Amino acid sequence: MDCFRYRRNRLYCEGVPVAEVARRVGTPFYLYSREAMVEQFRRLDAAFAAVPHLTCYAVKANSNLAVLGIFGKLGAGFDIVSGGELLRVLEAGGDSGRIVFSGVGKTDCEIDLGLRKGILQFNVESEPELDLLESRARALGKKARISLRVNPDVDAKTHPYHSTGMLRHKFGMGIRQVRQLCVASARSPYLDVVGVGFHIGSQITAVDPFVQALVQVKKLVLDLRAGGIRIRHLDVGGGLGITYKDEVPPRPEQYSKAVLGALGDLDCTLLLEPGRVIVGNAGILVTTVLLTKKNGGTNFVVVDAGMTELVRPALYGAYHAILPERSGRKRRWTADVVGPICESGDFLARDRQMPVASAGDLLVVMSAGAYGFVLSSNYNSRPRVPEVLVRGNRFKVIRKRETFDHMIYGESSKD
């Protein structure tokens, strides 16, 4: 379903004209479709209805409280990677018993917070982390539910910065080490080994890497059970990709068919950690053309959003479609769409074929619902932009535009 469409040559988000939001809120801003988020979550969750499972939304993709609240009401679990994300989920009304805590560098304070709140499980990524977790559980008189993360050494065939499942990456542990640590942990009165899992990367556009990893981890589960360790959870991570340009990622139904086919009759509760696939195409970044210029043979469209608002093009060379808010213009040119940041790497698109733009035009950066605002910054002392949520014919500002006072909060001019 496409919640962003043109009507009478003007772009709408659900039933709301994008230009009307721009007039009321000012640019740049992020705009999200609630309907798109809900439908995509339900579609993925329903694809696994045949087995016990919990769909844990990956908070890092988009951590706005309103967004988290939407998924909480839909019965989602949450995949977090920091104490701050845990507090966000709880603030948004999420159930602590449906939270999995991932990440390679959990601190004492973060572990204590998770233990006190009674989260579903810690996804453990190293032996030192396991030692720390046991120590903190002992100190607090708690029993920590743990799942050990396998690094299956599988190439996810994605951008190198998105790949997490090969042994040269910092994530997880080899299968042999995981097996040994599961056996040792099962003897501890402060650890409850509830599961094992993997996460091989992000923006993955084929099912084969998931299946390769799952085959290895399924064998591990069977080996552990044969040794008397009752593994109840199998965390298959996230990473399912979306279409930014010409990618053809598997549909949720294709993904579930492949995963469940490899799983067979293992009798585990599946934990899923989708993020981008739920929110990526549910959001856009709206920006205004400040001016156009030409240097040598290159046309430049200078807009009021840049790498401080959307860093993915500069960081990954990522492609985002850029559309005019008003369609129907026939004249086209090749141009670089750049921001006002004082960096040559500040661009949203390079050598892009697009309708000729003029000062004052609104441009829309598509597929910006995931890893957009969450990666934004105050570089060049720029205030972070608003986030706006559309529901039917109404819209609501779910994060106000940052002010100068917000930016300098906590700083002092006195040395």
Structural description of this entry:
The structure is a single chain. The protein has about 425 residues and is of the alpha/beta class. The protein has 2 domains: about 5-30 and about 280-405, Lyase, Ornithine Decarboxylase, Chain A, domain 1 (Beta Barrel), CATH 2.40.37; about 65-275, Alanine racemase (TIM Barrel, Alpha-Beta Barrel), CATH 3.20.20.10. Helix content is about 30%, strand content about 25%. The strands form 3 sheets. Strands 4, 13, 14, 15, 16, 17, 18, 19 and 20 form a 9-stranded mixed β-sheet that branches. Helix 3 (about 65-75) links the parallel strand 5 (about 55-60) and strand 6 (about 75-80). The protein is globular, with a radius of gyration of 23 Å. The model is unreliable at about 160-165 (pLDDT under 50).
CATH homologous superfamily title of the largest domain:
Alanine racemase
Categorize the overall geometry.
globular
Give the distance, in angstroms, between the N- and C-terminal Cα atoms: 55 Å
Helix residue percentage: 25-40%
What's the CATH class label of the largest domain?
A: Alpha Beta
Question: What is the topological layout?
Answer:
Blueprint: E1 4-7, E2 10-13, E3 16-17, H1 18-25, E4 29-33, H2 34-47, E5 53-58, H3 65-73, E6 77-80, H4 83-91, E7 99-101, H5 108-117, E8 121-124, H6 127-140, E9 144-149, H7 175-185, E10 191-197, H8 208-226, E11 233-235, H9 252-263, E12 269-272, H10 276-279, E13 283-295, E14 298-303, H11 312-316, E15 322-324, E16 332-338, E17 347-355, E18 362-365, E19 387-391, E20 394-399, H12 404-407
